Amino acid sequence: MAKQKKSVHRVAHEMLYRNLKKAVQMYNKKHKEKIPDLSPHSLRHTFCTRMAERGVNARTLQYLMGHSDIGTTFNIYTHWNGDMAMSEMKKTLEITDKMA
What's the pLDDT at 75? Predict the structure, then answer.
């Protein structure tokens, strides 16, 4: 059986992963405060979470992430915490106070 060629996408992903890993290693050698290993995929999750935190429209974020289902965007790619929920509640209270 002939060896199957790697797709351009796969080669690019592997190069990005190796370069990112090397950059983290170089940083960690020079700095006391270390950063964890990163992957392109972990950065994708971080991007999605940070954009949601900043109030990017849900449908826009779904489009940017390339997801056909908005549930994928918000149930898998965004990582919410109590601080974000509290911030949203404060915004809601400010809006309702202005309405009164």
Answer: 86
Q: What angle do CA 44, 71, 80 make, to 5 degrees?
A: 60
Q: What angle do CA 61, 45, 62 make, to 5 degrees?
A: 20
- Length of the chain in residues, anyone? 100
Which residue in 12, 88, 26 sits closest to 54, CA to CA? 88
CB 58 within 8 A of CB 74: yes
Range list of H helices, 1-100: 8-30, 40-53, 58-65, 70-72, 82-99
pTM here is 0.63
Three-class SS state of 67 = coil
For the chain, what are the domain ranges?
7-38, 39-100
